[in-house]
Amino acid sequence: MGHVLTLNAGSSSLKFGLFTGGDDPRPVLTGLVDRIGGAGALKLEDAGGARVFDGPVDVPDHAAALEAALAQIAARAPQARIDAVGHRVVHGGPDFADPEVLTDDVIARLEALIPFAPLHQPHNLAGVRAALAAFPGARQIACFDTAFHRGQDFVADAFGLPIGYYDKGVRRYGFHGLSYAYIAGELARIAPGPARGRVIVAHLGNGASLCALKAGRSVASTMGFTPLDGLPMGTRPGQLDPGVVLYLMQHEGMEAAEVGDLLYRRSGLLGLSGISHDMRTLLDSDAPEAARAVAYFTHRIRHEIGALAAGLEGLDALVFTGGIGENAAPIRAMVCERLGWLGADFDAAANAAGAPVISAPGSAVELRVIPTDEEVVIARAAARA
Predict the structure, then answer these.
(1) Residue 332 to residue 326: CA distance in whole angstroms
(2) CATH code where residue 11 lies
(3) pLDDT for 241-272, tens place per residue?
(4) Is the pTM higher than 0.70?
(5) Across-strand partners of 214?
(6) Annotated active-site positions, please?
């Protein structure tokens, strides 16, 4: 076959990749459009990891980011024949548990899930439509962030609401499943012992969550019905008493759309600091408001690690991944330095040096940093299709 294109739209970024086809897709070009809606930047690497473009781009929205990405691919790989396009789709609802060919019917069903993930699903579907127009002869494949968590026990899947709502789809879905699927596979390859046991993966980025794995299978996640739950994020609050929403509507006079804007776009690190949603900016800042937001972020990570470890009845390994998890050594330190009660012996020097293993020899809990690669997961699914 020809080539596979992958599109992975986040809340403030767009990752993209051009891969060879076949059973084992290999990258030809991979790129990232970062800081969409602000001072945008595009980075592009070739198959050997060499940077071939790194510069500013005008990307006021995700549509502009996709246009910039496709222009780079067309300029640098004009011979590429796109036979399949793999899309990251954040929400698959209760029905989509495997990669799916994107037909008109499937797209309509995914549009119906926009209220479940309003910050992501529209961007994902915009990418689908743009790819359909750009590559009408290619097979379009959706890969779902919720799929990895399907099959969890009822107690990890349900809310304490009348059961009729569960039957209508009001349940815990979990997200970042493509990242967790990749990490589960990588951990089994490089550390098969811990991978067979009890593992917590911390996917930390502008969107952040934790996932509990038992023998490589998701058994619990901090995110729930939507990507709002669990950890605080760039602009999302994470765990929140639902009574706060009632208060905002009943006593602050806020309409549903205003509450949605508050929870999806004005809370989290941005709301707590009043400075930025970007962890890099906050770590570079001397402002006490920045330190306070970072402290809250790491406090909530430790809290959720404790909860998931209790559900797993112990912990064999903790893995950091995602933009913050892979690159922000101070955040890893703030989390790991207070996990001694779990048996984690943290190696501060290894962490500061960016080592793949940041636990000390003999630590009962292995602490690792593994870069995630959602694009490879998407490319494999698209190539199989």
Answers:
(1) 9
(2) 3.30.420.40
(3) 999 999 999 999 999 999 999 999 999 999 99
(4) yes
(5) 198, 217
(6) 145
